[in-house]
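Co-fold these.
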Amino acid sequence: MAATVIGPGITIEGEVSSDDEVIVGGTLRGKLESEGAVTVEGDAVVEADIAAQSVAIGGHVTGNVTANDRVDLLSGGRLVGDVKAARLTIADGAVFKGNVDMEV
Amino acid sequence: MAPKDTSIIAAGTVIRGRIQSDGDLEIHGHVEGTVEVAGHLVVGPDGMVKSDLAAQSVVVAGAVSGNLRGSERVVLEDGARVVGDVSAPSIGIRPGAKLRGRVATGEAPAAEARPARSPAAAVASKSTARQAPVVAPPPRVAAKVSAPPVTKPAATPPAVRAEAAPKRAPEPVVPALQKRTKKAQKRRAR
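Predicted complex below.
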């Protein structure tokens, strides 16, 4: 209900923090924190560190991704940065360059 | 839910920085920085904005601390609290909205252009006999429009005078009272 939607036409330079779901379809540079789920959609460009409950990446992300629960790198997604999460899935067709820390 | 062009900053979301959008934007959370929207911008009842807002149309129902500029219009809804200047070709302030700041309807460049023309008109009016009363009012209006930079500095001197005035005021009052009392004492003595 109370999802924050950063649409395709929007560019944010700065810090975004939310206590609920965040859907990024546009461009975000800076920092993204959420206590809910973060979804980076296909055309989105995120140049920021992301910290959230869970993160789904379908667009381009440059930055470190930290999730309490899980990180899903979807098909078509591109991630350059380190991932720290309990669970990580990388779909076929996704691009990923970085380190993974699953707290083994 | 919402059209794809519409971005929503939900309640509970805080953004610090610069926001630029080609589409529409709804703010229900906290925003600090600058906001420039090509389309419609809505600040919801729970929205808290500390930044200048520029959009085609700006509709405010929440709290804004910053200047509002609409290329089409600005509307302050019931419950809106705005501290800042408002400028747009068309401005609506509904009952229940609170505003502290300057309001300028119409194009800002046009308002700036008027003072430049008015002196010429005033000169012309001086040369052409006594039509001055008819032509004079526009320069005064223009002066008011161009006054904003002057109003703030001008606001402080009256305050200083106001502070100075009480100091002067008691002086005559007290001696007057003393004189009266002295006279009264003399009268009493007599």
